[in-house]
Amino acid sequence: MSPYDPGIRLYVDDALAAGAAVTLDADQAHYLRHVMRVKPGETVLLFNGRDGEWRGEIADLGKKGGAATVGEQIRPFTASPDLWLLFAPIKRARIDFTAQKASELGVSGLWPVMTDHTNVSRVNVDRLRANAIEAAEQCARLDVPEVFAPAPLRDVLGNWQADRQIMLCDESRTGVSLADTLAAQDATAPWAVLVGPEGGFSPAELDLLHGRPQVISVGLGERLLRADTAAVAALACWQALLGDWR
Amino acid sequence: MSPYDPGIRLYVDDALAAGAAVTLDADQAHYLRHVMRVKPGETVLLFNGRDGEWRGEIADLGKKGGAATVGEQIRPFTASPDLWLLFAPIKRARIDFTAQKASELGVSGLWPVMTDHTNVSRVNVDRLRANAIEAAEQCARLDVPEVFAPAPLRDVLGNWQADRQIMLCDESRTGVSLADTLAAQDATAPWAVLVGPEGGFSPAELDLLHGRPQVISVGLGERLLRADTAAVAALACWQALLGDWR
């Protein structure tokens, strides 16, 4: 198998061990039958976020679901870095994009946070999760990002775990150098990247953030980045400087 | 004016100097009239890639075009870093996205290169250019990326300028650390980021690339990145480590 083509990979709930039976849901069965034209007896790759990656032989595919039998293990489990993306919800195409790209870039958690300048009031969490899982299947990671329930930024910060650092993407266009700042940080700590809405954070939110000991402010240059661009750019820089691209 | 909202910005061809008349094309006039509901007498920002940013008062808007009169200068000209993106063309939505994001991330040139595993045979250069210009207008940069005519990768490398470095995004998932490698490079040199197609470069192409003294190979981690994700990620890391985010 080429390193560029992992073939069909499915994220499943069931435990994975040689000989185990795995249940496929109706969407997965439909995807295998009608999109990928897979037939019983053919093999796919299976992962569940805890047991690594295994070969699975398709046993049955029907309208209501399907089943696979687990074969040999292909890769042992390794977790993605403990990195969350906190982002202000944006319109649908861009939120889909953000979830997909963040999953490819290896985040362990996705958290929509409502800010003073956030226009979007409802977030489709199931859709966010589906996009994150689909990207996880395609990018060959062994876990999927956890999707947290949307919450106001103030509440999220009010209950923040003391040791989780926050990389705050400073949209003032005068922020300090990202590379120099991140290079001096603790790569072993849990982290979160926080990207604001396109109207930026409110002055009150910035005061709140800058008062937090966990917040590390970094600049993303003088050009105005869209929120989704800023998220992808910040996550890539974090992986390059502190994450598993090293 | 908030740092987050530059208002309406238009890229124009004409020279910009106080009192000069500037021609707007039919698309710009339509956009101002029917999308932004701008009326004669209102002001926008103008830039042309060489004279900086100027206030412009709309003088006339019609079906075939319009005119503006240049007021005071807002910002002197500064060029974006000398960084090209070379990328294998992909399907339409992703190529639009790549052009938009690369422009936001400050590339000076966009070059579609045909590789052995490139499936797309035709590239709409006008569309690529329109996407790059629209993103340049929105992100407040003072120039627009040059779009080069699509060409085979072999020909591009055959005529390569000796001093332009190439950051090759290594999709083998075993590449060397991007951050450590880039940090040791010459930030004053002209650069190009080269991202392959989703099938990867062919062995012959990799031999050709690795034989070039300008090619610096970097890894983007173990997850399989889509070509458009790899382009955005690589450009962001370049700007953070060698470009104008420092």
Number of helices of chain A: 7
Gap between N and C termini of chain A: 25 Å
CATH topology-level name of the largest domain in chain A: Alpha/beta knot
Oligomer: homodimer
| Chains forming the largest contact | A-B, 47 and 47 residues
Shape of chain A: elongated
Main sheet overview of chain A: 7 strands, parallel
Description:
Chain A has 246 residues and is an alpha/beta fold. Chain A has two domains: 9-75, Hypothetical PUA domain-like, domain 1 (Ribosomal Protein L25, Chain P, Beta Barrel), CATH 2.40.240; 83-241, 3-Layer(aba) Sandwich (Alpha/beta knot), CATH 3.40.1280.10. Chain A contains seven helices and twelve strands. Chain A has helices at 26-35, 92-104, 125-139, 153-158, 178-183, 203-210, 227-241; strands at 9-11, 21-24, 43-47, 53-61, 66-75, 83-87, 109-114, 146-147, 151-152, 165-170, 191-195, 215-219. In chain A, strands 6, 7, 8, 9, 10, 11 and 12 form a seven-stranded parallel β-sheet that branches. In chain A, strands 1-3-4-5-2 form a five-stranded mixed β-sheet. In chain A, β3 (43-47) and β4 (53-61) form a beta hairpin. The longest helix of chain A is centred in the middle third of the chain and has 15 residues, at 125-139. The radius of gyration of chain A is 20 Å and the shape is elongated. The mean pLDDT of chain A is 93.
